[in-house]
Amino acid sequence: MSSSLSPILATSYVACGGAIGAACRYQLGRSMMNALGPSATIPWPTFAANVLGGLAMGLLFGWLAREGGASETQRLFLGVGLLGGFTTFSAFSLEMLQLIERGQAGMAIGYAMISVIMALAALYIGLSIVRVAT
Fold it and tell me: Which residues contact residue 53 at a Cβ distance below 8 angstroms, ignoring those fewer than 6 apart?
């Protein structure tokens, strides 16, 4: 994909959005751990981040499509940076491995399936909300 932005400027947009997204993800995790406690059976903060990230991506994609496309800065800052920093599939993968290593392969498979299904459903809902509002 070619860009009219310099690589340094494009990377800066991604980095700034990513920093904000990562900070939001951290605060979500802290809040949920405080509310649920550290002994929750399923890693709910990661689940919530993935579902909310899917919903946000659907809303963003729908909004940008309705507005006639994204500027390169919007796409890089919001889509790649902010939502890339907020969603947590790297943490998801680690937690999956930890469940498997603890002998909870069934829990790992169930957690993976529900996470992916719910994130896709949330993205679809977000996109549908924007499409209906058009």
Answer: 83, 86, 87, 88, 119
3-state per-residue secondary structure call for the chain: CCCCCCHHHHHHHHHHHHHHHHHHHHHHHHHHHHHHCCCCCCCHHHHHHHHHHHHHHHHHHHHHHHCCCCCHHHHHHHHHHHHHHHCCHHHHHHHHHHHHHCCCHHHHHHHHHHHHHHHHHHHHHHHHHHHHCC
Provide the 10 A C-beta neighbour count for residue 54. Answer: 24
The first and second tokens of residue 108, run together, are 């790992």
Q: Is the pTM of this model over 0.90?
A: no
* Per-position pLDDT tens, the chain of length 134: 556 899 999 999 999 999 999 999 999 999 999 998 877 788 899 899 999 999 999 998 888 888 887 788 998 999 999 999 999 788 888 899 999 999 999 999 999 999 999 999 999 999 999 999 87
- Sign of CA pseudo-dihedral 97, 98, 99, 101: positive
Nearest to 115 by CA among 52, 56, 61: 52
